[in-house]
């Protein structure tokens, strides 16, 4: 991307602030923000209410961040929503996933039926996030194992965003600037 994705503008706030605030507003608690590169800048952009955990081993990959976040979550939660900072959240998708908390794996799907992000991992399986480094493909290993038990939830908001390029970011911003209701019909 060429810039720190967590600090990209999303509706007038840094993307990381949007992500955490969206989760808190939708009733997901605790919200655990795992930082790595440029941790202090990302931490300053986080809203009150987000628990910030630094992953000193962030260079080893995403699995180490998932493990760090999972280690900070209490054992009595209904599930764990796995969110990447570069996959902007919408309230409609969060509400649809939350309605199915407790299922082994809940994945939002787009109009074509393709699964997207974020994913909700049920209480019986979220502890597996604490030990992903030995999994051949990290989180994908877990989601493949749970595929037969997965609950797919159709939503109208984008669930396949991945802001890895300036072009992808501009396209997502066009959707945001138009207003989610304009494209989702809600």
CATH names the topology as Spore Coat Polysaccharide Biosynthesis Protein SpsA, Chain A
Which H/E pattern describes the elements? Answer: EEHEHEHEHEEHEHH
Quaternary structure classification? single chain
Termini Cα gap: 31 Å
| CATH homology superfamily name | Spore Coat Polysaccharide Biosynthesis Protein SpsA, Chain A
Indicate the CATH class: Alpha Beta
Give the overall shape, derived from the CA principal axes. Answer: globular
In spatial order, strands of the major sheet run 5-7-6-8
Low-pLDDT sequence parts = 182-186
CATH architecture term: Alpha-Beta Complex
Number of helices: 7
Question: Measured on Cα atoms, how large is the radius of gyration?
Answer: 16 Å
Which class do the helix and strand fractions yield? alpha/beta
- Beta strand %: 15-25%
List the domain count as a whole number.
1
Helix content: 25-40%
Mean of all residue-level pLDDT scores: 87
Number of strand segments: 8
**Main beta sheet:** 4 strands, mixed
């Amino acid at each position: 991307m060429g810039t720190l994705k967590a600090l990209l503008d999303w509706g007038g706030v840094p993307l990381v602030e949007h992500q955490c605030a969206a989760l808190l507003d939708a009733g997901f608690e605790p919200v655990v923000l795992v930082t790595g590169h440029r941790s202090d800048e990302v931490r300053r952009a986080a809203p009150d209410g987000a628990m910030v955990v630094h992953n000193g081993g962030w260079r080893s990959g995403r699995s180490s961040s998932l493990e760090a976040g999972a280690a900070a979550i209490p054992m009595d939660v209904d599930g764990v929503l796995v969110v990447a900072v570069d996959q902007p959240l919408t309230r409609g998708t969060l509400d649809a996933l939350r309605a199915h908390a407790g299922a082994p794996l809940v994945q939002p799907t787009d109009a074509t039926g393709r699964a997207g992000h974020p994913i909700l991992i049920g209480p019986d399986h979220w502890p597996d996030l604490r030990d992903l480094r030995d999994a051949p493909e990290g989180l994908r290993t877990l989601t493949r194992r749970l595929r037969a038990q997965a609950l797919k939830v159709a939503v109208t908001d984008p669930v396949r965003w991945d802001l890895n390029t300036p072009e992808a970011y501009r396209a997502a911003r066009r959707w945001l600037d138009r207003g989610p209701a304009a494209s989702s019909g809600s």
